[in-house]
Structures are given as C-alpha cells and as structure tokens.
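Title: Prediction job returns without error message
Component: structure pipeline
Severity: low
Priority: P3
Assignee: unassigned

Description:
Job completed but the reporter wants confirmation the result is attached to the right record. Sequence as submitted:
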Amino acid sequence: MSRAFVFPGQGAQTIGMGRALAEAYPAARAVFDEVDEALGEKLSTLIWEGDIAELTLTQNAQPALMATSIAAMRALEAEGIGMTQVAFVAGHSLGEYSALCAAGSISLSDTARLLRIRGRAMQQAVPVGVGAMAALLGLDFEAAVAVAAEAAQGEICQAANDNDPGQVVVSGHRAAVERALEIAKARGAKRVILLPVSAPFHCALMQPAAAVMAEALAAVVISAPIVPVVVNVRAEAVTEPDRIVDLLIAQVTGSVRWRESVLWMERAGVTDFWEVGAGKALSGMIKRTAATATTRAVGTPEDVAAAKA
C-alpha cells in the first residue's frame, strides 16, 4: 500500500478547529504559537473563539486552515507517523501551501505570511460583487469548459476547480457565471449552485494577485520538498524549487486540477489517502474519483489515535 497526505482548501474552516490537537500535543500547540508570531496577531484566538464570518474572510481562512493542517501533521509525527511513510503530498488550492510546508519546502512562518498576503491579494484583485463562482454538479470537466466558453460572451468565465467526475466549479465575471448556470442546466447538470465566496478565485481576474504572489515568493526561501508535491495546475509531481515557485504563481489564475491529481497519484501506486487538517471534503472527492482508494481524515486527537492504531 502506498500512501499520500492531502491538505484541504478554503471552505473547510470551522470555529474551534485544531484546538483539541493543540491541547493534546505540545508540537501542535507550537504551530499555532508560531503562526501567531509570524502574523503579529492572535489568529489562534480567532480560530478557536472567534466569529465564523471573520474566520471565513480569505485573508484569515487561508493561514488558519494551513495552521490546522500543520498542527495535525505535527500530532501525527509525535506518534511516529511522518513523511518517510508517504509517496506524495498534495493540497487543494491553498492546501498546496500546507503540503509544501509539511514536506519542508517552505518554513511555517513563511507559509503563514505568504497565505496572509495571498488571501489579501485575492480579495483585493476584484471589487466585491464583480465576480462570482458556481458549482456545476453532474457535468464532467470537458462539458463544464464548454459551458464556461459559451457563457463568457466577451467576459471571463473559466472552469476553476475540477474537483471530481461530477463536480466542477466555474469562476469569472458575475454575469458570465450566472449565464453559465442557465447553460449548464440546459445541458443536463443535476444541480447548479452559486457559491458564497467573496471573490472569483482561479480565473484570469486574479492576475493582479498573481503579480503580488510573484513578488512575495521571490522574497522567501523555497527548498526541495522531502516528498514530491503533486501540484494543482499540472496534476503531476514536482520537486524543483524554481518550478514550484512558477507553479504557485500560475495557480492563482489557473485551474485546480484535483480530479486529475488524484488519478495521477492512483496511477503512481497510491491506494491510501490521508486528509490532514479540517473537514472531510477531499476524502469525498477522492472516493468519487478513485473508487478503490481508501481515505482517512485526520483532524482531531481521536483521528490521530485511530491512524496510529
């Protein structure tokens, strides 16, 4: 059996996430302390005791979810489960930063600061109300790409997240995304959902944020990961630091090719996927993509104990 650690993206955040890990494992507590210090604020207080609307703000949710994932990783390592036992790591959107941090490519403090910058830049790239994102359920990626192309009509509309065989998210100008909803329904989508997001992520409207991230990434040290990282925009494993930087920049405007990433890992021999951090969204996507794969969510001390057992 070959294993991969995968790390969740935005949308998995909940008030209280990671708190039990911090109380049970000093190494997990140290993660939240270091992130607080790196950001110059008590993000941990917001995560554990704050308001969900504030936590869901992109600039908060991104470093918060990463901190929770790395805290869960440190708890696993405290129980003797670490990178030597996995073939690959991968993460969904911001989760790619968690994966790189877990694999030693980017320091925890730098990852926290990069995600704070990324969150702000993505939020500021497009005025509120100008963009939108929507989930198309029951259409495959090729069908969703065709829907987005027809809906664009001179505006931006792209297939942003290829999550699993029956779930694709489109992103772009609000009017274009709203047109995509109607076109998708006419083409047989089982359900279409306008998503409650504050900006149109992973489309060309994010180009200003990509420029910000190019500058931010140039200022930090990126090392070769100790485990290959299967990256969103290529759906294949990468280890070269220069290429990692280029692909993190491309990821801001590019599609999250999660379904293809899972299939790539399956073809490479991965049979066991552990979702490290908050929630179980990736586990569901993985099961719908690779039917014979086994999944495990690791986000609490009980999950860590079960994983160790």
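Comment from assignee: result matches the submitted record. Residues 131-197 form a domain with the Alpha-Beta Plaits fold (CATH 3.30.70.250).
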